[in-house]
Amino acid sequence: MSSIDVARARRETPGCENVVHLNNAGAGLMPDVVLATMVEHLELEARIGGYEAAAREHDRVEVVYDSVARLLGCSRDEVAIVENATRAWDMAFYSFDFQPGDRILTCGAEYASNYIALLQVARRTGAVVRVVADDETGQVSLGALEAELDRGARLVSLVHVPSQGGLVQPAAGVGRLCRAAGVPLLLDACQSVGQLPTHVGELRCDMLSATGRKFLRGPRGTGFLYVRKELVEQLEPAFLDLHAAEWVGRDTFTIRGDARRFENWETSYATKLGLGAAVDYALGWGLGPIAERVQGLAASLRSQLQALPGVEVRDRGVEMCGIVTFTVEGVAAQEVVALLSADGVNVSLVPASYSLLDLGSRGLDSVVRSSVHYYNTDEELHRLTDIVARATG
Ligand SMILES: Cc1ncc(COP(=O)(O)O)c(C=O)c1O
After folding, report:
1. What SS3 class is residue 206?
2. CA 254 – ligand 1 centroid, Å
3. Pairwise CA distance, residues 246 & 253, whole Å
4. Is residue 277 part of a domain?
5. pTM for this one?
6. CA separation for the pair 149, 264 (Å, rounded)
7. What digits encode the pLDDT tens for the residues 12-43?
């Protein structure tokens, strides 16, 4: 039995009255407190002015850094708050001064935006991208990674939970190997924050990027980056502004010493405060209880779907999370998504181009992605499987 009070969670989530929301890997439903926090700040901006509202709420905005730091188990100086997970990841990645021949290791589940950046940097600098093999379960092979690290590497990029499936990568194991080899690990935790514990000390990552809108249930247009203190000053952001740096003389500038060097000056204070409210709300439930309920619901959904003739669950790995992907024989994934949507059930489509190495190598052009959260119910899962069963018949 999970310790989550599901009735309370649903009461505090207005969207639960309108939809069966199984698209938390797209964007989770915001709880009341997140919405109210943002509306309150927008109203204040309208009443007294945007700069004046930011000044009045300065202390509350600062507390958002403490909240994110608590979520990640790091210090507030190691946190940058930006517009989305991609920008967070890019700000870390493009800070590396790659040289010809530098080896960048990644995995088969890598996310499209990250892989495109890897390819661009390889083309520009002569660095080399190596994809570490998966093991037979579909997660990155720690043995193969160790062998690749032995040959030298400048950076390891790992997606903790990929967009396109239920897999949870053995991130702590990867982190342990990277630490032993002295190679920095950039962890894309976009799909794991808010549904699994993501303490950077336990994961042993050096940088972590994440978004606010998915399992954290924050507003769209929010993301954050963690950079380990020892690394912050070694990484010069690819671009700077007067917030990240200070113009101190005609020909000189200094870059700030904390992780906010990866931010830019202009930002949405309303969504930043909303992000803080979402993080506090998640911490209020506890990431342990959230993970337990999410993983229980997802396991139940997988077994219900697997029992349907013509339906194939496509998730791989040893540990799995709240993302449940499947295909239906003879029915295009897009059509399944449309059928569910017509009946008030939100899921999403993941085309192979989101993760070409993974879905492409499995011969899948797309999958249906359902993704549960702790506020979902067994009845909602049955609603999905009933509709899918009709589609197969
Ligand atoms: C694994 C993964 N990384 C990164 C991203 C990009 O996140 P954002 O849209 O916040 O930039 C996504 C988005 O779906 C994702 O699934």
Report:
1. coil
2. 31
3. 5
4. yes
5. 0.98
6. 34
7. 999 999 999 999 999 999 999 999 999 999 99
